[in-house]
Amino acid sequence: MPGRRIEIAPGVALNEDELSFTYILASGPGGQNVNKVATAAQMRFDLRGSPSLPDRVRARAEMLAGSRLSRDGVLVMTARRFRSQERNREDAIERLVELLREASHRQARRIPTRPSFGERQRRLEGKAKRGDIKKNRSFRHED
C-alpha cells in the first residue's frame, strides 16, 4: 500500500514513502522519560533524488536547506519539540512542507518603471531646497 500524498503546492505533491524516520534520545521536557525513550524524530528526505519535485523547486530547496542538506543531497531534519514520537514526526513533516512551499513559491518578476514628470520635479525641488539650506549655513561678512 503506497503512503499518503503530502500536498505542497498546486501541482507539487510528495509521497510519504520518500521520507525515512529514525528516533533518537531527545533533550528537553519529559522528566525521567527523556533518558529512557527515544522520542526525537530524525527525518531524512533525498532531495536530489526525489521524483516528486520539479527541478526549479529542487534547486531552490537546496539553497534554502543550508546546513541541513548533506553532501549526498539528503535533507536531514530533527524534531524534538514534543514528548511523543508521533508529534515530533508530524512536526518534522510540517517543517519539510513549509520549506518546500517556500521553495515552490514563484517570485513575481519586477517590471521596471520610470519616475513620472511630477516625481522628477518634486525631487529636483527638494534638492534645490536642501542646497539653499546648506548655502545659508556659511557665515558671510557684509561690508
TrEMBL record:
Q: Any stretches that span the bilayer, and where are they?
A: none
A single GO molecular function, which one?
peptidyl-tRNA hydrolase activity
Please identify the protein, giving its name as recorded.
Aminoacyl-tRNA hydrolase
Q: Where is the composition biased (Basic and acidic residues)?
A: 117-143
The ranges of region (Disordered) come to 107-143
Has the keyword Flavoprotein been applied to this entry? no
Instruction: Keywords in alphabetical order, please.
Output: Hydrolase
